[in-house]
Structure formats: structure tokens, C-alpha cells
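Researcher: Re-running this chain for the archive, since the previous output was lost when a drive failed. Same request as before.
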Amino acid sequence: MVDFEHDLDAALGERIRACEVFSARVWGSLANGVWTHTSGEVEEFGYRPAGRLVAWIRGEGDYLDWYCSWDTVGQCDPEVAAEMVKRGWTHSTWAL
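Model: Regenerated C-alpha cells:
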């Protein structure tokens, strides 16, 4: 079983902890997004779970600190996508 949260932390945790703007870009890449692993595992994040994950990686605050922190929701930041694809994860957006 793969673990998206730990893969994200391993790939980008240092940058997430160091930079609030980058953390907001990660939130925007997670919220309303679907991540599919090469194994077939799928992870989906709404606004709150995306915020919880960013707060968990940063080791501070809660989902409200990141809720709507980036203006582009569901569109994956190219830098985030590039790092996650190295760990087998690809991004798509929820069909509304």
C-alpha cells in the first residue's frame, strides 16, 4: 500500500515547511484534486483535507490556516506535479 501523505512529505515537505507561498500552492494542487498512483491507488482531497495535510506537514496550525489560501484550486502546480510523478502519482481534477 502506498501512502500519499508520506510521499508528499518526502518529496516536498522541506519546501512546504520553509515557505508559506509554496504551502499555499500545494494546497491549491490538492484541493478538488485526484491523485492516482501507478499501483491504482487513488487519493482525493477536498478543501479541508487538503488544508489538514498541509498543516500536518508544516507541523503547525490546522486546515483553516490553508483553506482557500491559493486562488487556483484543482489545477496542479507544475513543480508539485513533477515531484509527485517521480513517486508514481499523477494528478487530475474532479469533474464537477
